[in-house]
Prior knowledge:
The protein has helices at 7-10, 23-30, 54-68, 81-100, 108-131, 133-136, 184-194, 197-207, 214-228, and strands spanning 72-73, 76-77, 144-145, 163-164. By secondary structure, the protein is mainly alpha-helical. A two-stranded antiparallel ribbon has the order 1-2. Strand 1 and strand 2 form a beta hairpin.
Amino acid sequence: MNCLPRFHAARSSLRRASTRASAVLLLTWIGLPAGSLTLSNSAGAQTASTSRTYSELVTLFNEWRTFEEPPRVAGIPDYAAATNARRLAQLTQLQRRLARIDTTGWPVAEQVDHHLVRAEMNGMQYHLTVLKPFARDPAYYASIIPEESDTPDKEGPVIHASIRLFEYSIWPRTVLAKPVPLTTEASAKLRAQLGTIPPLLAQARRNLAGSTTHDLWVGGVRAFEEQSET
């Protein structure tokens, strides 16, 4: 089965875009035709050769993956309103390029890849226009994640460049593991990550100034209290 390069490795970040919408809502957004999900069972009957225009999808996918990461300002992701508006316009252009790719005659495996890319892009559109955690949810800026989630990726929207303490040896991943002192390199990396917290919170104050989502603010207080105990 033909798959886009890095697809399996990349799925963990459908974070984000994941992250971003329920399965039912996502299926509605991507507009899969009736019965298309059942076609994968017949993928083996399709030709193994790559379609002539499939390379266009691969190229676009690689551009999209680079674009999905927001620009950095002083080492932190930029979620300013002007930046998000500009990125939404750029996303629209990527979606139009995807729609223009001629998929006539593509085998099912390649059609699935096309749907996956479309789903990711629609997920980001939903993230920027509906969820908007960067402008509504204070907990989004609680960037320290002390424990590994029991799901493939952390539930709910996750800020880019989050600080995952469980990836450092000093914080064992299991009760049976023992802490191991950080190497000089790991210590320097963690110190640099922790140094991004003050400017990130300063940006949060600006981005959340117009938020009136009471329940999210209550949850945000709880999230920062838990983070302070880490």
